[in-house]
Each structure stands twice: as structure tokens, then as C-alpha cells.
């Protein structure tokens, strides 16, 4: 009874402060703080508002840039070959047994179609006890001379993209998934990674979903109230999120295979990013993505390898864009802005 009374009180507070909360939670859309020129119209076709499916115009772009065709098929195959021994030696499963059990329960509404919960990560960032980090390190101690050839070449290709103002490289993280299990809960990457997060889809593309951070917090508060009042099954909540996203203000980003996505400015610090559990596609096994609208389904590959390059902030005039590209990285990390909302699965 006490829990129910508290939930009703919270619901009343949320309802009474609805207008003010909406203003407080209004999604920011600025690349202010990043050194790059503002995102141009060429990125709009790759960004859609969830629900309406409308393209996001440059004025509302929070700092997302999409670079299709960053890798050739040959480049991708070479990179995948290079990743295999790294996975065997340095790959770590960061999903705890308790979290894995929770995910299995939450997706059990799918029945036999529910994929095995899995992930493998290679990173220099200290994330778990017993982790064997790769030689290139992390943050101020990052040493790009320790990167294997294909990863080093890809980092250099990103730095050479026109119009970007990237500071020194601070982290390289490889994420691997299989059996169409791409679930990635909304989160902000650690502040020490730096200002710029560049995600490369090597073999399979996906849809990356951005949630305005404050709006997501309001949504979670409301879901907690509703859950307390209705005793809603967690599986129903996860199903709604898979089929309808996390908030009504989300933005979907099409991250196709062989391409890259850069998050900076508000997209880096004030919007979380994640990947929905996925939906079933008639006639195809596994789970798949949808882009902007539920009826625009994007097939997933059974396996996905992505590489995340984290760069410090560059200088507006590009003077520091080449700094730190020859040897070890360092300096200019993310400062105190941001921080993880959720541990990354």
C-alpha cells in the first residue's frame, strides 16, 4: 500500500509539472562545443524522427554525421581477418550472468525466436577485473603505434575525412555480436573517451537510436510509476521499446555496413545512443532493425563487428587536427561533461 501511495504521488507530480518538465526535457540540437563545421544536408537522409519517419533537417541535427562507403568490401574483409586473433586473445564478455538472465527473461516474449544473449569486446579502457587489454592502451596513455595495420589505416582514413576537426585518438574499441542479438541499451560513452565518437560498421549495418537524455529520464520515471501501478510485466515494456522505441522524441540513424557515424556536440553529450532489441521479419530468421517507421524494416546480418574510434576535441581552425597522429595520444579528453547513463551491455 505504501509503495502504491508513493507511486500515485509521483504520478500526480509528473502530471502537475508536465508543461515545465517538457520544457526542461526538450531535445537539444546543437553541435556547439565541437570544432567541426555544422552538419550539412547530406546527412539528413540518414537521420529520421521515430514515428513519423521524417528526415531530420540540418537545423535539428544534434551533431550526427554519416559517412557511407567508408570501407570497400576488400578493406572490410582484411579488417575482419585482423580482428580474429584480437578477439581470441583480448575479447571479453562484459554481460554479467545476472544481466544475461535478465535479458533472457525480458526477450522471452519472442518464444523460440529469442536469440542467445551475447557480446564480445576488445578495448584498452579498463572495464572489468581480469580483463586483458590490447597493446594500444587508452586515454592519455593511448599509443597508436601499437594498432595493427588495418585498424591504423582505418583511423587515418577517418582523420582525413574532409570537414572534420578531430583531436588526438584516445581509444579504439571493437564490439562483436552474433545470432542477430544487437541489443544495446541507451547510454553515453565515458567522458574520458573524448569529444568525438566515430562508429564504423564493418560487416553488418544497424540502426542506431538516439534518445534525448532528459526526455529519457522523464520517460523512465513515468515507466516506473506505471509499473508500480499496473504491475506491468517487464517483457511487455521491452516489447514496446523494440517495436516503438524508448521515447517519442527519438532519432534513428542508419548505420549501414562499411560506413561510419560520428557523434559530437549534443549527440555526444546530451543524447544517449543504443540499438533496439529488434523485430521479426516474415520469411527471415532472427531479429532485424526498423528505421524511423515500424514498417521500414532493415535486415540485420547474423554477425556484427563494429569499431569505435574515440577522438579528443580538435581546434576550430583545424590546427590541432594532426596533433598526436604520429605516436601516442594524449590530452584534450572529454573533460567533465557527460558520463555513463547505463553500463554498456
UniProtKB/TrEMBL annotation:
UniProt xrefs under Gene3D superfamilies: Alpha-ketoglutarate-dependent dioxygenase AlkB-like
UniProt-listed InterPro entries: AlkB-like_sf
Keyword Signal: yes
Lineage: Eukaryota, Viridiplantae, Chlorophyta, core chlorophytes, Chlorophyceae
Biased composition range(s): Gly residues: 321-339
Region forming the signal peptide: 1-25
Similarity remark: Belongs to the alkB family.
Keywords (A to Z) from UniProt: Signal
Region (Disordered): 25-63, 317-345
UniProt protein name: Uncharacterized protein
Domain of life: Eukaryota
Keyword Signal assigned: yes
Amino acid at each position: 500500500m505504501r509503495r502504491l501511495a508513493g507511486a500515485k504521488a509521483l504520478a500526480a507530480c509528473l502530471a502537475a509539472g508536465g508543461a515545465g518538465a517538457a520544457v526542461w526535457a526538450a531535445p537539444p540540437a546543437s553541435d556547439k562545443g565541437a570544432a567541426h563545421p555544422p552538419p550539412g544536408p547530406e546527412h539528413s537522409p540518414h537521420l529520421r524522427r521515430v514515428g513519423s519517419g521524417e528526415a531530420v533537417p540540418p537545423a535539428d541535427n544534434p551533431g550526427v554525421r554519416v559517412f557511407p562507403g567508408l570501407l570497400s568490401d576488400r578493406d572490410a574483409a582484411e579488417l575482419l581477418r585482423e580482428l580474429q586473433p584480437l578477439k581470441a586473445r583480448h575479447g571479453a564478455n562484459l554481460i554479467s550472468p545476472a544481466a544475461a538472465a535478465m535479458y533472457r527473461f525480458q526477450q522471452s516474449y519472442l518464444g523460440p525466436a529469442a536469440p542467445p544473449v551475447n557480446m564480445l569486446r576488445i578495448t584498452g579502457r579498463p572495464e572489468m577485473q581480469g580483463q586483458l587489454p590490447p597493446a594500444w592502451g587508452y586515454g592519455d596513455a593511448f599509443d597508436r603505434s601499437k594498432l595493427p595495420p588495418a585498424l591504423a589505416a582505418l583511423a587515418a582514413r577517418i582523420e582525413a575525412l574532409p570537414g572534420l576537426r578531430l583531436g588526438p585518438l584516445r581509444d579504439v574499441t571493437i564490439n562483436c555480436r552474433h545470432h542477430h542479438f544487437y541489443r544495446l541499451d541507451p547510454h553515453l560513452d565515458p567522458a574520458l573517451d573524448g569529444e568525438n565518437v566515430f562508429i564504423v560498421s564493418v560487416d553488418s549495418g544497424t540502426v542506431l537510436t538516439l534518445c534525448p537524455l532528459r526526455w529519457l529520464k522523464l520517460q523512465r520515471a513515468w515507466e516506473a510509476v506505471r509499473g508500480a501501478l499496473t504491475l506491468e510485466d517487464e517483457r511487455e515494456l521491452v516489447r514496446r521499446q523494440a517495436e516503438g522505441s524508448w521515447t517519442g522524441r527519438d532519432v534513428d540513424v542508419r548505420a549501414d555496413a562499411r560506413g561510419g557515424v560520428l557523434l559530437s556536440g549534443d549527440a555526444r553529450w546530451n543524447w544517449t545512443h543504443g540499438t533496439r532489441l529488434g523485430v521479426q521479419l516474415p520469411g527471415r530468421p532472427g531479429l532485424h532493425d526498423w528505421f524511423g517507421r515500424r514498417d521500414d524494416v532493415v535486415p540485420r546480418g547474423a554477425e556484427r563487428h563494429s569499431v569505435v574510434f574515440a577522438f579528443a576535441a580538435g581546434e576550430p581552425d583545424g590546427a590541432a587536427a594532426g596533433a598526436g597522429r604520429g605516436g601516442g595520444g594524449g590530452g584534450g579528453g572529454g573533460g567533465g561533461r557527460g558520463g555513463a547513463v547505463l553500463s554498456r551491455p
